[in-house]
Design a protein that fits this description.
It contains 4 helices and 7 strands, in the order E-H-E-H-E-E-H-E-E-E-H. By secondary structure, it is an alpha/beta fold. The chain has a single domain, classed as Rossmann fold (3-Layer(aba) Sandwich), CATH 3.40.50.300. Helix 1 packs across helix 2 and helix 1 packs across helix 4. The protein is globular, with a radius of gyration of 14 Å. The two termini are 15 Å apart.
């Protein structure tokens, strides 16, 4: 499934639609070039979880930020992660399989630590303000999530 947006506001709206389909313990893995809109999408997911979107910033220098909403949001940014083993000492599994929603930017840097099941979102820059979001699912639960995201977007 692929969705296109033409502004940051539309990208945040897509994020809030994604949040409607998520429940505690769900994982969203984001990939895409630097500046493609991954953090903007994460802000939209946060908003959909009842978190002030303006409170959400890129956690690039701390790797993980936690936000409180109707469901906690664990926002990972692995851009500066040099070795996947470096995240093990942070207790990342407690976040991924905990009571909140995990959104992981630069998820491909997890390498062998990548979760077996998740919603994948690849973000592409397709114009000055236009972005393309390609959704994928690993695992039956996440196939259902992607289907609901598409239904929410179409509604």
């Amino acid at each position: 499934m692929r969705i296109h947006t033409h502004s940051a506001a539309q990208t945040r709206h897509i994020g809030s639609l994604i949040a409607r389909s998520l429940r505690p313990g769900d994982i969203v893995c984001l990939s895409g070039n630097l500046g493609s809109g991954k953090t903007v999408l994460a802000k939209g997911i946060a908003s959909g979880l009842g978190i002030d979107k303006d409170a959400v910033i890129s956690p690039t220098f701390v790797i993980i930020r936690e936000y409180r909403g109707r469901v906690p949001l664990y926002h990972f940014d692995l851009y500066r992660l040099e070795n996947p083993d470096d995240i093990v000492s942070l207790g990342y599994e407690e976040y991924l399989y905990g009571r909140g929603v995990s959104v992981i930017e630069w998820s491909e840097r997890l390498g062998p630590l990548m979760p077996q099941e998740y919603v994948g979102v690849h973000v592409r820059i397709s114009g000055e303000t236009t972005r393309s979001f390609e959704f994928s699912a690993r695992g039956q639960r996440y196939k259902e999530v992607v289907k609901r995201i598409y239904e929410n977007f179409s509604a």
